[in-house]
Design a protein that fits this description.
274 residues; alpha/beta; 5-stranded antiparallel sheet; 11 helices; 39% helix
């Protein structure tokens, strides 16, 4: 199966600090995978490399069959969005005073296919595109069970619905890969269950590949097909959930115990041998 995302020995250093040691992995199309690890393991830095916030110090990053980053160079954030990478954040970032509908509609900005001429002269192309955006907005509101709250301000939604709205807005950009950063952070059990179903919907019904960062281990083990574990910027495991649960390196990392193989890998900047 073709890979939607591939890291090829990609690393990043900030001065003398290696935030992510040379890292290699591939996400096949349609897969739901997680990156986990203790605080400071490098998880968010990996997301920032994928989205073009940072360029790698060495190595390459490929997306949808094309190289998008290499040593010291990366496509910009907006270019990667247009290529098909969408992201949500741990701290929800909505247009709070705008309606739920307008939050979703705003995400279609990068998919508008009309220009200044069309806007000035009110061409048929303008009206066709606006009608299409309006229709797609209503479709996504329905898919994400937000139609009955479409006219409410986003900051008036319950927390779980705000998260669902953020995911709907990300999906509106037409991604091939969706990055979810702590999607259930701060949620109660019922909200967590609702967002879990939303994630499954995105993968199964919309066919979008998903890579998530999550500290909620029961969720990771429940829905993910694969788990990549980082510690100190190095990859210490990459396997199916049941194997990760029983991996001695992972257990040591989460318990804060010394593990000679992990310590050696961090010191020399390479992955732990599988």
């Amino acid at each position: 199966m073709a890979s939607v995302l591939e890291f090829k020995e990609a690393s990043i250093r900030f001065g003398g600090l290696t935030a992510v040691a040379p890292l290699s992995f591939a996400i096949p199309q349609g897969q739901l995978a997680a990156i986990i690890g203790p605080n400071g393991a490098g998880k968010t830095t990996v997301f920032n490399l994928i989205t073009g916030v940072y360029a790698p110090t060495s190595g390459e990053i490929w997306f949808d069959g094309a190289r998008v980053a290499s040593a010291g160079k990366s496509l910009r954030v907006h270019q990667l969005v247009r290529k098909g990478i969408a992201r949500t954040f741990q701290n929800i970032r909505l247009f709070g005073d705008m309606s739920v509908r307008d939050n979703v509609r705003a995400a279609f900005a990068n998919r508008q296919n009309y220009g200044v001429f069309d806007s000035l002269f009110q061409t048929p192309r303008l009206f066709e595109c606006e009608a299409w955006i309006a229709g797609e907005t209503e479709r996504l509101l329905e898919v994400f069970s937000l139609s009955n709250r479409a006219d409410l301000p986003a900051n008036g939604l319950p927390y779980g619905d705000q998260r669902r709205l953020e995911i709907a807005r990300a999906v509106a950009t037409n991604p091939k890969l969706l990055l979810l950063d702590e999607p259930t952070s701060g949620m109660n059990p019922s909200e967590t269950d609702a967002v879990t179903e939303t994630i499954r919907l995105v993968q199964n019904e919309l066919g979008i590949s998903i890579l998530l960062i999550e500290h909620h281990m029961s969720l990771v083990m429940k829905i993910c097909e694969r788990v990549i574990v980082l510690d100190g910027g190095v990859k210490i495991a990459d396997d199916v959930p049941v194997a990760i649960q029983n991996n001695t390196h992972v257990i040591a990392a989460y318990l804060g115990e010394s593990d000679p193989e992990i310590d050696e890998a961090i010191e020399h900047g390479h992955a732990v041998a599988s």
